[in-house]
Amino acid sequence: MTCRVLDVRRQGYYEWLAGAKSVRAQENELLLKHIEKIHEESRGTYGWPRVHAELALGLGLAVNHKRVARLMREAGIQGLYRRRRRGCTVRDPVADPYPDLVERRFSVEAPDQLWLTDITEHGTDEGKLYCAAVLDAYSRRIIGWSIDDNMRTALVTDALGMAITRRRPTPANSTIMHSDHGSQFTSWAFGQRLQAAGLLGSMGSIGDCYDNSMMESFWGTMQLELL
């Protein structure tokens, strides 16, 4: 019917259909090359959501996420899943904690309004290493960090000191420094550094990872993609 209406030969019509399909196939082949390159550059860690984001934001390609997921599935390409992070918070039961000034509201309108900090551990062939970091909630960038083979208070004060030196907050900024109830963060030394820099201490509820979820998310990504 279509051939009669358009006055074309049946053979030519099917050749046109075959050509249209081959164009789609060629597009998929090119798209798969981009996918493979992105996946390789991520050291095999990216799943389809991150790959799709790189295609759209990095390369400017308008492609449906379902298509990306299907091509990756057919090619046997998959990302890594986050391992459950082992907590290393040791609470001081007699310490006086700061109030929760954040209450899980991590969205801010400018840099240096809210900083987050935490400690994580990473096993190596030579033993455990501990890393403390300070993250700016606005840019989601690490602005201070420290690594050591122990979890003494200096681990967190060094990370905080780097953040203060790099960003130079003032009391007028009313920068909030949010953490968990670890003994390092309730220590006298850490509190003195906060006070001297004009930072406002803040702590979530005890044993609830969601009260510092942005920092937890960063650690998960770091463990997955870098370590």
TrEMBL record:
Q: Which residues form a coiled coil?
A: none
A Gene Ontology molecular function term for this protein is:
nucleic acid binding
Query: What GO terms in the biological process aspect are recorded for it?
Result: DNA integration
Domain named Integrase catalytic: residues: 107-227
Q: Name one Pfam family in it.
A: rve
List, alphabetically, the PANTHER family matched.
Answer: TRANSPOSASE INSF FOR INSERTION SEQUENCE IS3B-RELATED, TRANSPOSASE INSO FOR INSERTION SEQUENCE ELEMENT IS911B-RELATED
- Chain's role: Involved in the transposition of the insertion sequence.
Q: Tell me what this protein is called.
A: Putative transposase
Source organism per entry reads: Actinomycetospora cinnamomea
Taxonomic lineage from the root: Bacteria, Bacillati, Actinomycetota, Actinomycetes, Pseudonocardiales
